[in-house]
């Protein structure tokens, strides 16, 4: 479920003491509804967010990435986070975002990186230059990818580990 892919990491990161900000492609306060009807309101619009204020970015799966990848600001945020060496995590269909976010040379940010995701995005990742790995979680540089909601526990562990690591480096 797409809502679980947003809510579980949100709650798990909050348990670790993180301040989690839900960023949407629309105006602040927009209500997004998961496929089972569970609502999630955005705390901020991507238009008002700067990567320097964030420690990590978590992209849920479900149908959200199909909409989010159409937002240039969201793609720019992914690029800025990765360029700063900050963790950018995506689960299920979320790694699709890494196919659309492109470096200045025009290549997708996932080009040359190991990644995983939901089986339906495997070809897109490979076509974007990713090295497909069928494992619960794959960490390559700032990118953390995971396959399905069944992998949310190790996915969240990786986000926590990499966020702590990134914070100790900067």
Overview of the structural elements:
The radius of gyration is 14 Å and the shape is globular. With 170 residues, it is an alpha/beta fold. It contains six helices and ten strands. It has helices spanning 2-15, 64-68, 72-83, 97-100, 122-127, 152-169; strands at residues 23-24, 31-33, 39-41, 44-45, 57-59, 88-91, 114-115, 131-132, 137-140, 143-146. It starts with a helix and ends with a helix. The model has no long low-confidence stretch (mean pLDDT 92). 35% of the residues lie in helices and 17% in strands.
Helix run count: 6
Unreliable sequence segments: none
The overall pLDDT, averaged over residues, is 92
| Proportion of strand residues | 15-25%
Name the strands of the widest sheet in spatial order. 5-6-10-9
Q: Determine the N-to-C terminus distance.
A: 34 Å
């Amino acid at each position: 479920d797409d809502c679980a892919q947003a809510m579980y990491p949100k709650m798990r990161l909050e348990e670790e003491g993180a301040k989690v900000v839900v960023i949407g492609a629309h105006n602040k306060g927009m209500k997004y509804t998961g496929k089972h009807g569970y609502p999630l309101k955005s705390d901020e619009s991507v238009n008002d967010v700067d990567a320097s204020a964030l420690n990590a970015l978590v992209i849920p799966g479900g149908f959200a990435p199909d909409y989010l990848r159409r937002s240039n600001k969201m793609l720019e945020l992914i690029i800025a986070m990765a360029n700063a060496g900050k963790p950018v995590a995506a689960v299920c269909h979320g790694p699709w975002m890494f196919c659309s976010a492109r470096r200045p040379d025009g290549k997708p940010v996932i080009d040359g990186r190991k990644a995983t995701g939901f089986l339906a995005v495997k070809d897109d990742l490979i076509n974007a230059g990713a090295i497909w790995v069928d494992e619960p979680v794959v960490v390559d540089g700032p990118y953390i990818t995971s396959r399905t909601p069944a992998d949310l526990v190790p996915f969240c562990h990786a986000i926590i580990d990499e966020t702590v690591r990134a914070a100790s480096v900067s």
